[in-house]
């Protein structure tokens, strides 16, 4: 019996995607294109089932519809964030900005509006998966350029465990929030133009959508800043972009 597990693990090195969508036509369409790209797919029509599958299926990425029969997709996202920090890509027919902002503030990483092309969906899925895989790939390749723990006064960022501590307490960040913080804090005081930051985090397919970036920055500030209105770590440089300011941690300055 032991071998079954081992063989399954060896065979199943495909990345797993959980699709939470109640309209069969759409979920079948998404499944078809994901399988063409050799992803393993699980479909859930209900929010409650999606929460169970997040544990048992261990997806690497979740595609989440906003309008579900039993729960609001936004509520599902909030609950998912208690158990997983993998990318969550919202799918909805509602295209207005309000929903997009609400979705991202509930811990979502991205938002795609129906109807979308398979190419657009796959591009985003790939961009998010590539982004979350990056640190492990570098470690596997024997490069340790990006895995140093960054320590600042009141803030610690560990790219290997992907944990962030604020005043010694672990806080929960979405994978996008983590990437943003890590990217900025690796090079303190360097100004990152919005478009450059956006392209580096989301990939070329998302160029131009700086509104999304602003929402993520705002959410990140709420989690790490003492006063998000007067941020100490993530500073807006008017007309230029964002930069990270942090006092490097040293034992001597602690009392
Ligand atoms: Ca729906």
What does this structure look like?
The chain is α/β, with parallel strands linked by helices. It has helices at residues 2-11, 24-36, 47-56, 73-80, 97-105, 118-140, 175-186, 194-202, 210-224; strands at 16-20, 40-44, 61-65, 88-92, 110-113, 150-152, 155-158, 163-166, 169-171, 234-237, 241-244. Helix 5 links the parallel strand 4 and strand 5. Helix 7 (175-186) packs across helix 9. The protein is globular. Mean pLDDT is 84; it is low at 1-11. Bound molecules: calcium ion. Calcium ion is lined by residues 22-23, 65, 67-68.
Cofactors, ions, other ligands: calcium ion
Largest sheet: 5 strands, parallel
- What is the number of beta strands? 11
Helix content: 40-55%
Number of helices: 9
Mean pLDDT: 84
Order of helices and strands: HEHEHEHEHEHEEEEHHHEE
Shape category? globular
N-C termini distance: 55 Å
Structural class: alpha/beta
- CA radius of gyration is 19 Å
Strand order of the largest sheet: 2-1-3-4-5
Give unreliable regions as ranges.
1-11
Question: Keywords for this structure?
Answer:
255 residues; alpha/beta; 5-stranded parallel beta sheet; 4-stranded antiparallel beta sheet; 9 helices; 43% helix; disordered N terminus; binds calcium ion
Annotate the secondary structure layout.
Layout: H1 2-11, E1 16-20, H2 24-36, E2 40-44, H3 47-56, E3 61-65, H4 73-80, E4 88-92, H5 97-105, E5 110-113, H6 118-140, E6 150-152, E7 155-158, E8 163-166, E9 169-171, H7 175-186, H8 194-202, H9 210-224, E10 234-237, E11 241-244
Parallel strand pairs: 1-2, 1-3, 3-4, 4-5
Antiparallel strand pairs: 6-7, 7-8, 8-9, 10-11
Helix pairs in contact: 3-4, 5-9, 7-9
